[in-house]
């Protein structure tokens, strides 16, 4: 049987209980799974998706990278990432779904939330093992969110925003050793801007020099910067984004591979197949057959 295209869920389709929860959904993991058992297979979200496991086993995948489910694991996903769950036994914890615009009218800086490193959209950067101290700080905030999301008290949405931002800050602090230097702030800003440009232009622009020009730096500087920050060149960052989109498109078995090659701006199907096999280790056809 052919696999269908990866479904995309918006936050309204996953509302639990109150109709007002169209911008934010917060639930205990067992309740969420019981209400939405159909979404364990690969799917996308049009919103931010966060989960904290307090117990459980199995695996979950984010953009085709597999991670073990274990107590103390917290993961963050940005809109558009592909996700699936494969649990073994009961799983406890919390789920938060929050719309991309939930903080826009509340914060003067609309890009504030994107500054947290775990909201970069890179799968490995969004999966964090929370230490005991951070867990002790974070779990009461999640319990507070559960109370607010189910209440009719005044300013409950604003309180949710405050609690959520406090959680983001505490998680970010738990993953950083010592004070953040001005140089690191500058580096994080440049990296974030480069990734945003890649996200916007990777279909057409494949050369580091094009992005270097948009960032007002030299190609050599951009490459050295990416090596320093990520351990890979700027060209590899661009290539990885193209490869990820190819994998996402290949999930839909009804789309001919030649169409995917054209959509990704490859000269022909042969060139696309060589590119994919070189960097994914398998042909597009083999990858498609092996998708779980």
TrEMBL record:
<keyword id="KW-0238">DNA-binding</keyword>
<dbReference type="Pfam" id="PF12833">
    <property type="entry name" value="HTH_18"/>
</dbReference>
<dbReference type="InterPro" id="IPR009057">
    <property type="entry name" value="Homeodomain-like_sf"/>
</dbReference>
<feature type="domain" description="HTH araC/xylS-type">
    <location>
        <begin position="192"/>
        <end position="290"/>
    </location>
</feature>
<dbReference type="InterPro" id="IPR003313">
    <property type="entry name" value="AraC-bd"/>
</dbReference>
<protein>
    <submittedName>
        <fullName>AraC-like DNA-binding protein</fullName>
    </submittedName>
</protein>
<dbReference type="GO" id="GO:0003700">
    <property type="term" value="F:DNA-binding transcription factor activity"/>
</dbReference>
<dbReference type="InterPro" id="IPR018060">
    <property type="entry name" value="HTH_AraC"/>
</dbReference>
<dbReference type="Pfam" id="PF02311">
    <property type="entry name" value="AraC_binding"/>
</dbReference>
<dbReference type="InterPro" id="IPR037923">
    <property type="entry name" value="HTH-like"/>
</dbReference>
<keyword id="KW-0804">Transcription</keyword>
<keyword id="KW-0805">Transcription regulation</keyword>
<dbReference type="InterPro" id="IPR014710">
    <property type="entry name" value="RmlC-like_jellyroll"/>
</dbReference>
<dbReference type="GO" id="GO:0043565">
    <property type="term" value="F:sequence-specific DNA binding"/>
</dbReference>
<dbReference type="InterPro" id="IPR020449">
    <property type="entry name" value="Tscrpt_reg_AraC-type_HTH"/>
</dbReference>
